[in-house]
Amino acid sequence: MNVPISPLANARETDASFPVEVYRRDFPILAKTVNGNPLVYLDSAATSQKPRTVLETIERYYTEFNANVHRGVHWLSEQATRLYEDARGKLQRFIGAAEAREIIFVRGATEAINLVAQSFGRTRLQPGDDIIVSHMEHHSNIVPWQILCEQTGANLRVIPIDDAGELQIDAFERMLSPRTKIVAIVHVSNSLGTVNPVERIIRSAHREGARVVLDAAQSVPHMPIDVQSLDCDFCVFSGHKMYGPTGIGVLYGKAEWLEAMPPYQGGGDMIRSVTFEKTTYNTLPYKFEAGTPHIAGAIGLGAAVDYLNSIGMESIRRHEQELLSYAHSRLQTVGNVKIIGNAAKKAAVISFVLDDVHPHDVGTILDQQGIAVRTGHHCCQPVMDRYGIPATVRMSLGLYNNTEDIDALVRGLEVVRQVFGIANV
C-alpha cells in the first residue's frame, strides 16, 4: 500500500531571481521576534532552520505510522520500514551513490568519522603509517584520528594553510607516500568558508593507495555533490545542517570497503543469528545500524532532501554565492572589520573580527538586536591559533537568507562600534 508522507504537492520551479521570499515563508521560525526585533538568522553553519514540510513529516510519522522498523509483520511496522528505506534511497540519489546499501544512517558527521576511524582505520593501520588531515579541520575530523594514532602507532600529519585560508596543495602532495593510508579532508571549512580542491586531493591520494574520507557537512547543503564523480572512499554529513532533524546523519562508503569492515557497535538488527558461541552479522547497510534507529530522523531527512530537490542545488548555490559577494562588499564598509579567510573559492561563510572587541561581546550586542551569529573558535582551535586570534564572529548563510539580513548585520555592527566608541581607521 502506498502511503506518501512527505510530498511537496508541486515541485516549484525557480527562476533566475531565486524567489527567496517564497522560500522564507516555508520556515516558521523566521517569523519569530527576538528581543523585540525580527529574527535575523545567520548561523546556518551551526544548524539550519527547518522547513514546514520536514516538521509536518516528522509529526505525521509519529501520529500515523509510529512503529519499529525491519522487525514487525503488522501494517504500522511495514509502513515505517518502507518510509525509512525510502529515505535511504533519497539520500543515495541525492549524493550520487551507486547503491542504497552504501548509505549508513548515523547520528551525524561526528559519529560517521568515528565509525570509519575505528572500523576501517583500526583494522588496517600499523606503526609508522600516516594519516593526513588539514589545518582547517573541525575537531570532529581531528580528534578521532588522534585517538586512532594512539591506538595504532600511526602518525598524524597536517596540511598547512596560507594567510588566505587556502590549503598548500604542493605541500600536501609532498607529504604523500606509500605510508599514507588515510586522508581525511573537509570539503568546505566551517570556520573560513574555503572550498577545497577535493577532486585533486582525492586523485593524488589514490595514486599512493590512500583512502579518502570527505567531510561534506558544510558542502552537501549548499552545492551539488556526486560522490561517484568525486571518487571519495567515504563521505560524511549531518542532517541538521541540511534543513533536516538533529540526531541523524549519513556515512557514505564504497561498498567494497563497507563489506570488509567489522561492525562498529553490536546489538539488535545488525545480526543474522546469535548464539553464545558465535554471532553472524547482517548485510549492508544494517551491519552498521545496531539497535532501534532514529526512524523519524531518517524520514525527516528524506523530506529535507525532497525540499532541496524541489528548489535545486545549483539554484541554491548561485543564490548563496550572490549573497556571499554582497556580504563581503557590505562588510568592507564597516570600519575596523577584518575578514579572516579570503580564499578564491568560498562557500557561504564569513568569519571576521572587529577591532579589539571580543567576538562574544559582538555576538551579545547583535543578539540584542535579534541577529543570530556564531562566536568562538567554531570547534576549530588550530585555525584560530594559525591566525593568532582567540575567536571570530561567524556569519553563515542558508537558502532562506536575503540581502536584508546582511544589511541588518551591518547596521548591528555599527551599533557595536558605537557602544565601544570605535573610531574609523
Polypeptide structure, described:
The structure is a single chain. This protein is of the alpha/beta class and 425 residues long. The protein is 38% helix and 16% strand. Strands 4-10-9-8-7-5-6 form a seven-stranded mixed β-sheet, sandwiched between helices. A four-stranded antiparallel β-sheet has the order 13-14-17-16, covered by helices on one side. The protein has a two-stranded antiparallel ribbon with strand order 1-2. Helix 7 (198-207) links the parallel strand 7 and strand 8. Helix 12 packs across helix 14. It starts with 19 loop residues before the first helix and ends in a 6-residue tail after the last helix.
CATH architecture classification name of the largest domain: 3-Layer(aba) Sandwich
State the CATH topology of the largest domain: Aspartate Aminotransferase, domain 2
Query: What would CATH call the homologous superfamily of the largest domain?
Result: Type I PLP-dependent aspartate aminotransferase-like (Major domain)
CATH class of the largest domain: Alpha Beta
Amino- and carboxy-terminal Cα gap: 68 Å
Mean pLDDT: 94
User: What is the total number of structural domains?
Assistant: 2
Rg is 22 Å
Proportion of residues in extended strands? 15-25%
What would you call the shape? globular
Helix content: 25-40%
Given as residue ranges, the uncertain stretches (5+ residues, pLDDT < 50) are 1-15
Class from secondary-structure proportions: alpha/beta
**Largest sheet: spatial strand order:** 4-10-9-8-7-5-6
Q: How many distinct helices?
A: 14
Sheet of most strands: 7 strands, mixed
> What oligomeric state best describes the polypeptide chains here?
single chain
Counting DSSP E segments of at least 2 residues, the number of strands comes to 17
